[in-house]
Amino acid sequence: MLTYEQLISLLIEALEQQQINIVHTQELVDVHTMGRSLYVTCLAPNVDKHGNWTRPPLRAVISLQWPAELTVVSLHGQPMIDMLNQLVARRRELQQEQLLGFELTYYLPLSQAEQAAAELSFQTEKVIDLFADQFDIDNNLAINAVMRYGVDQEPILAQLTVTRQFPIARLELDLIEEATAAIADELHEMLPRLYAAFHAGQNEPGLDPQLYLRPPTA
After folding, report:
1. How far apart are CA 28 and CA 71, in angstroms?
2. CA 7, CA 171: separation in Å to the nearest integer?
């Protein structure tokens, strides 16, 4: 069974091998449950991550929620690992959710004209066309939109995101490598493609950026 630190190291190595433009990482610990969270923000290849911006023109965020129980299991050795594997097998028999997995969310910028038009159906079809050659999009492509209404009651398409799931059945090396490689491969293909289609605000001035530092656990 791999530890949290080993899993994160495999993810970062897979991204670096594909030369993904990592701009920021964040690791959090819940002081009540002792669960751990990871967020890795990536930009398209030609975006200057040392430039000035309030928010990147287009970004992808990889997230992972690591429950404290998995840390306990990894510390107690093989008996606990065997028990965990039995639990995972039982959950799969019952067709329940996977024990763990990466979530990949793309934040798609919209121009002021696109926001004012609020053509959600058009934007949805556009996204589906862009992801058409990716695996399992029929069951693994969540398009989410935030609609806002001003005092004039006119709708504004304030935010558009696309989320993909990369579940992990067991914390074994081959399965983790398969998931991290799939994420890196998709980002290598999709970030340039999405950047060409959703490039609003790429020259907007803003605050100093968050600089990428390789996570100490990796």
Report:
1. 15
2. 8
Mean pLDDT, rounded, for 96-118: 86
Rg (CA), the chain: 19
Lookup: tokens for 87: 């639990």
Please state which of the ranges 96-105, 117-126, 134-143, 168-177 shows the lowest mean pLDDT. 96-105
Quote the tokens at residue 15: 């991204």
